[in-house]
Request: fold
Amino acid sequence: MIEVQQLTKRYGPFTAVDGVSFNVGKGEILGFLGPNGAGKTTTMRILTGYMPPTEGRARVAGFDLQEQPVEAKLRIGYLPETPPLYPDMTVREYLRFVARIKGVPAAEQAARVAAVMQRTHVADMAHRHCGKLSKGYRQRVGLAQALIHNPDVLVLDEPTAGLDPKQIIETRELIRSLGGDHTIVLSTHILPEVAQTCQRVVIINKGRVVAEDTPENLTARLQGAASVYVEVDAQGADAQAVLAAVPGVTSVTVSAQHGAATGFEVQSERGMDVRRSVAQAVVGAGLGLVELRPTRMSLEEIFLQLTTTDTPSEEVARA
Ligand SMILES: Nc1ncnc2c1ncn2[C@@H]1O[C@H](COP(=O)(O)OP(=O)(O)OP(=O)(O)O)[C@@H](O)[C@H]1O
Reply:
């Protein structure tokens, strides 16, 4: 549904977006994750036809944003970081106005406005002036205007920025509920947001894509089973020595004590899954195996590793 190929945007001598490529399948929710200044907003603006790229191309629903901008834009709903509301219009007036300029047929406008107000839970604010709305409602009305022409694709730039925790949960639920019917690209610098809302994540830093995968796979790919937590009932035996003798294990450290059971953090050579041999060794030595699980990096740790590493980030991500 969305194809982005080698997008580059230069502001004078400064390269804000540098050869970014990604695809988004129909009905998918893609998280576009990066720190402030990474190039997210610039990419969103190119993707929505608000700004031309210096190089590269973007297609939405098969339409090239530069060659067929009208057809492409008809299929896109865009929620910029600051929703473009008119303070003196009521919510209903504003949505009617947006429906008109987005080309919704006159006979369908009232029904469309009612439907999106329902969907985004703003119907109770229909007669409130946009300028008098709370931040949470402003964001929802922003989402309503993006949805008004029932676009295939929704591009949401930092949709939960500035919301309180309750509003954040509601907005994420709303976005999740829109996936499937709509293809969604959501930009954010909030790591748990992608894990909770998106099926796939593109991580961008300094204008470049440093990783792309599902939140689960990204964690697994970086860490694999390189670290496992093993808890054993170690009465009368040197559990640490048993674990250290397992082929591939590089270090064993005590990390917890629960009564008679001791928890160990077992590191292994990269790419080696030692879980089976650890289990066999523990049981073979007559120790009780209480728990065995891989310890994975949080998305936060991955992000830090990808963006602060000395090695070129792509190598880290693809290793
Ligand atoms: N019009 C512009 N002229 C010059 N530089 C710009 C312009 N717009 C953005 N930049 C620079 O390009 C880089 C990427 O900006 P962009 O807004 O795309 O990042 P972002 O990832 O969306 O960050 P944020 O979350 O802070 O909005 C930044 O260093 C920014 O200062």
Summary: The chain has two domains: 2-213, 224-303. The first strand starts at residue 2 and ends at 11. The chain is about 35% helix and 30% strand.
